[in-house]
Amino acid sequence: MPPSKLANLQRGLGLLVMLIALIWLLASAQAGLSWAWRLLGLLLVLLPHASVLAIEFLLLARFSHSHPALRPGPAQLMRAWLGEVWMGVLTFGWRQPWQPNAVPDHLPSAAQGRRGIVLIHGFVCNRGLWTPWLRRLRANDLPFVAINLEPVFGDIDDYVPLIDAAVSRLQAATGVPPLVVAHSMGGLATRAWLNARQADARCAGVVTIGTPHHGTWLARFAMTANGRQMQQAGSWLQALAAVEPLTRYQRFTCFFGHCDNIVFPAATATLPGADNRHLAGTAHVDMVMRPEVWDEVMRRLALPGG
User: What burial class does residue 202 get, using C-beta atoms within 10 Å of its C-beta: 0-12 exposed, 13-18 middle, 19+ buried?
Assistant: First the structure.
């Protein structure tokens, strides 16, 4: 597996944060600050994403316009924020920068006739996002391929050849069309692949997790090509939906949540005719680790048609 450029970037940022934390500890000790102030400053340095996440949750609460039945309460938002702060440390501070290739793709010699999984991450992520999944899949001797979507800030259509190659590689090893599991933007890349290659027969179905199928409110601030493609009512999404057969959506399971701090309003992560499943009280990255998602993937793997 080639090195991830994003991993190198996130390693550098992580090391910079650790350097700033060390400088703060030395400077605050020299200044004679109390341990309480030293600890507070250290937390602010080590958890810079916590305040960004807090802003996202405030925007979610203000602009989500969810159906009353899907509107989260303050306690749910607080729990989701705390969970996402911790998940951010694990994902962006450890798994993605330092473990993107900790578990290589698994194509066992006895894979023929056994359905495998292609795992596709989302925006500003790499295959390290799936590390806990990859360990479980390998422990169960299930075939899988997990890819890196690069260029990181490129056009979503640029990812079509990467997905196509992963599907071809896995199907060659198993002789069976794989199930595709995609988080966030990865679900849009999957739809782009299905459309560009008319690949419905090469796929046993799709499970998306927090995918902005109809865009997201936050994308109005996007500065990158793929970020702008995720704008609500954007031209790219409208053009894709216009040429997709509605019957394709029936093969999708779409997990969405009213505490998704990236993809909101919540219903934007659903598709008409799909098996749309709500995950209560769970933020965007944390959704990946919910047992309901894993259980559904295992159930679909066992189905004759995925």
Answer: middle
Evaluate whether residue 93 is within a structural domain.
Answer: no
Cis amide linkage into residue 151, ω under 30° from 0: yes
> Which residue range is the domain that position 273 belongs to?
117-302
3-state helix, strand, coil in the chain (%, to 5): 55, 10, 35
Q: Give the separation between CA 129 and CA 121, rounded to whole angstroms.
A: 7
In a 3-state reduction of DSSP, which class is residue 269? helix
Q: Report how far residue 276's alpha carbon sits from residue 128's, in angstroms, rounded to the nearest whole number.
A: 26
Block residue for tokens 């299930």: 142
pLDDT digits (tens, 9 = 90+) for 153-162: 999 999 999 9
Q: Are residues 128 and 10 in the same domain?
A: no
Using the predicted structure, report yes or no on whether residue 278 has a pLDDT greater than 60.
yes
CA distance 197 to 230: 21
Q: Which is nearest to 44 in space by CA: 78, 21, 77, 74?
A: 21
